[in-house]
Structure formats: C-alpha cells, structure tokens
Amino acid sequence: MKLTITDQAFAKLREAVPADSRLLLSFDDGVGPFSKVGVCSLDTSYDIIAVAKDARTPDYEQTLATNHGDWQLKGYSAVYLDNNMKLDFKNHQLVLSGESGILDSSVDIKDLTKQEA
C-alpha cells in the first residue's frame, strides 16, 4: 500500500504540523484515543494526525509508505483503502483518492504533538 502526496498537499501539511512529528492516517471510526466517539455516518472519514515521535499509538500498528516518509494506520482500516492512493489539495481541502475514486474529499489535519497519547 502506497500514498503519493502532491506538492500542494505536502505544503499544507507543513503549514499545519511540526516537521519532526510522526503522522498517522486515522480512519475515524470511534476507536482509539484520536477518533470521535459515537460517530454514526455512512461516510468514510479520515484524519491526518500529527503526534510526537515518542507518542504511544498501539492502535496504529501498520505502516503506510508515502513519498515523504512512512506513516502509521490502524491495520484493519486498510480494507477501506486502495493499494495506490494520492493525497492532493483541491478547492481548499485535502482530498484522499485511490484507484476506486475519492475515498475522502475533506481530510482533516490534527496537530496533537503537544498531547500525550
């Protein structure tokens, strides 16, 4: 599984999170310390979460290769992703897409580097 981050999307990420943070692609399913609790929606929603390098993130046990370094994700959420994906910045939104089309048209960025996980 691979994620290509466009230059525009990478610039938006660098504006929002510290360069030395570790990044998670988080399936927002209500599981784990970074998901909204009790979300009932038919939409598939992802967040990009920046955490400190040493933050404990046991739910994020799988690695996602990107053209800007490895990210982590919840292993079971891979079923909702494609093998080859792209993160782009369009119409003032981060858009996650893959071979099957748009996976999330409005990916949120959360900087939690100051919080303990």
From TrEMBL:
Pfam families in UniProt: Fe-S_biosyn (PF01521)
Gene3D superfamilies registered for this protein in UniProt: HesB-like domain (2.60.300.12)
Domain Core: 1-111
UniProt name for this protein: Core domain-containing protein
Lineage: Bacteria, Bacillati, Bacillota, Bacilli, Lactobacillales
